[in-house]
Specification:
It contains 22 helices and 20 strands. The chain has 625 residues and is α/β, with parallel strands linked by helices. The longest helix has 22 residues.
């Protein structure tokens, strides 16, 4: 037996790979044959983590000529036994059975990389799930980490046993998808049931070939085949235990092929619970006297939102209004968190109504918390937000951060934001110190949006920092340096003096790559309200509304799907990434909307599109396509 050879271990968790056959071979046979053909792999074993006692599996492994190794997490010695079983091998390659189409090309390149670079650990990054191994480990490294874990367990250093696959002395390497394949690959997702695998193999017979990892989506799918696959994905998400993952895959395909009527649900949803607010910020469009509608979203309506099981991110905030003003906020949040534990939930608030009871409800359950605090002093807070609540908000935020620390919770991530104006210029650096002292993780600075100040905000354009750029850069630079000293994350637009690497992204000057493709009309669903409180669904952050009305008391799956596929949304999906076809999208990709010189640019763009929107409104009323 060659010490230079590797073993391949199929990580089995109960998937039906031993029972599903294609052309006379089970999926397990296919996997074993693929792995045995890889130069450098001497033998194949099955690492059984299912926790089941199945004589059929043992018999199937015997027929395949592979060893069956039990690897129960309840047995702290199992990892050491595995290391012992591999004593005659250089290492082990772990291959998932959840998607049984591993490609020999990637396995071969992994073996070569391990040998050439003398690595202890090799990980795979950004690979389509199932097409590559999950990792390759040297036998000596696996043994040493197993022994360290056992020592920790028996000495009481750790309460539960798990093998550390890395340590600070390990020679670690990685293979990235972009380094192996230069073009967009077929993307897969984890298969969880026998029916899933059967359907996938029938719909996608190309998966039987060893080169499917190199096929492009455009090559695989003709229009008919794509429709068949999208239909199957749409049906699969109804029964999948992880429908949000299936929905993400479905949504990615629909976006890539620029489908206008979507079968997928929006991966990112924002819900405005109320148009009412307890602040009167000068830089905001909120005007209680202008509201035509002031109703709150009901708890019953939130309970109708069963489609949240398909989404991945849920943001509780809106264009105007503060969610914590809602008298049933805690009940609503708890319902969503308990019913949809997979969701990443964020909250945006001014913090005035952040009571101790609400803070206790959020700690350990909310993922991201952002407070629009806007000042480091009572005087600036009062001038900008026009309510004398600075101390109250400060202590509310202090309590939230303290509770997170006391409970040992890792969430929510705590961020505070400040809208930068001439009035708040002196508070920019002190704001970093204040939020650090309160126990927050990050600070976000943003200019106020001059685009919609015209006739809509009390703050005048003369308050813009664009009119005092040098002074603004000095204040922000000082805040950045202070953030580095304190270890605080600072999020901000590009400095006015910066030009290299600065591009317009969603109407904002950012140090970021040039924005080529917009994904918002496929991914973003804002269930918000317009300036007079009328419920509106929007699908981008242009600041405009397109008369896509929704009923806040009817938020069931069918109602959401109809709004999500409104003719206005379909139009944007059709035109957003085609230059010259949508003036609003061109504006968003090329115009700095924070610059007062561009205050009317978005209205000019809207006027160009007005005839089209009028036609869309007729289609929506008549139900025509």
């Amino acid at each position: 037996m060659s010490k230079a050879a590797f073993s391949a271990a199929i990580v089995y968790r109960g998937e039906p790979i031993f029972t599903i056959s294609r052309k006379g071979k089970t999926l397990a046979e296919r996997m074993v044959d693929t792995l045995r053909a890889v130069e450098g792999i001497k033998d194949v074993l099955v690492l059984d983590r299912s926790g089941e006692q199945s004589p059929d599996i043992a018999l199937a492994c015997k027929k395949l000529g592979v060893k069956l190794h039990k690897a129960s997490r309840r047995n702290p010695l199992s990892a050491s036994f595995l290391a012992g079983a591999l004593i005659q091998r250089s290492g082990v390659m772990l291959v998932p059975a959840a998607f049984p189409f591993v490609q020999s090309k990637f396995a071969q390149e992994a073996i070569c990389k391990m040998k050439n670079e003398n690595l202890d650990v090799l990980q795979f990054k950004d690979f389509p799930e199932g097409l590559a191994p999950t990792g390759v480990y040297r036998t000596g490294h696996l043994a040493s980490t197993s022994i360290s874990s056992l020592i920790d367990l028996f000495t009481g250093t750790r309460r539960a046993f798990s093998v550390r696959i890395r340590d600070k002395n390990a020679r670690c390497g990685s293979m990235k998808w972009e380094d192996v394949v230069s073009q967009v690959p077929v993307r897969s997702f984890a298969v969880r049931s026998a029916e899933d695998i059967k359907n996938m193999v029938e719909v996608w017979p190309e998966l039987e070939t060893d080169d499917c990892g190199e096929m492009l989506l455009e090559d695989v799918f003709s229009a008919t085949r794509l429709d068949t696959y999208l239909d199957w994905l749409s049906k699969s998400q109804k029964t999948s235990p992880t429908p949000h993952l299936v929905n993400e895959h479905l949504n990615d395909l629909e976006r890539k092929f620029e489908r206008t009527t979507l079968k997928s649900y929006p991966p990112y949803v924002c819900l405005n619970l109320t148009p009412m607010c307890n602040a009167r910020c000068t830089f905001c469009t909120y005007d209680p006297k202008a509201l035509e509608r002031k109703e709150f979203i009901s708890l019953d309506a939130v309970k109708q939102m069963t489609w949240l099981k398909y989404t991945s991110n849920f943001a509780i905030w809106g264009g105007i209004g503060d969610s914590l003003v809602h008298p049933q906020f805690s009940e609503m949040f708890s319902h969503v968190r308990e019913t949809h534990p997979h969701l990443s939930i964020s909250l945006f608030t001014n913090g005035i109504s952040l009571t101790k009871d609400i803070a206790d409800t959020l700690v350990g359950k909310l993922d991201t918390f952002n407070c629009s605090f806007n000042a480091a002093s009572r005087e600036v807070f009062l001038e900008l937000m026009r309510v004398d609540k600075f101390e109250q908000v400060r202590e509310n935020l202090r309590y939230l951060a303290q509770r997170r620390k006391e409970t040992g919770a890792t969430r929510p991530h705590l961020t505070a934001s400040l809208v930068m104006t001439k009035e708040s210029l002196s508070d920019i650096k002190p704001f970093v110190d204040l939020m650090y002292e309160l126990g927050f993780d990050a600070v976000t600075f943003a200019n106020f949006v001059s685009t919609t100040t015209v006739h809509k905000r009390d703050m005048d354009i003369s308050s813009s920092l664009y009119l005092c750029k040098e002074e603004a850069d000095a204040a922000v630079s000082s805040a950045i340096e202070r953030g580095k000293e304190l270890g605080m994350t600072i999020n901000m637009p590009a400095l006015f003096s910066e030009t290299e690497g600065v591009n317009i992204v969603t109407g904002t000057r950012l140090k970021a790559p040039k924005w080529e493709k917009c994904t918002d009309p496929w991914r973003m669903c804002y269930l918000t309200v317009n300036d007079v409180g009328v419920p509106q669904m929007v699908f981008c952050c242009s600041g405009l509304y397109y008369d896509v009305d929704y009923d806040p008391e009817h938020l069931d799956e069918e109602s959401l799907w109809k709004v999500w596929n409104h003719p206005a949304a379909q139009f944007f999906r059709k035109t957003t990434n085609h230059p010259g076809e949508n003036a609003i999208c061109t504006y968003c990709k090329t115009v700095d909307r924070f610059d007062p010189d561009n205050a009317f640019a978005v209205y000019d763009a809207y006027d160009q599109m007005k005839p089209i929107f009028e036609s869309i409104a007729v289609k929506a009323e008549t139900g025509s396509s």
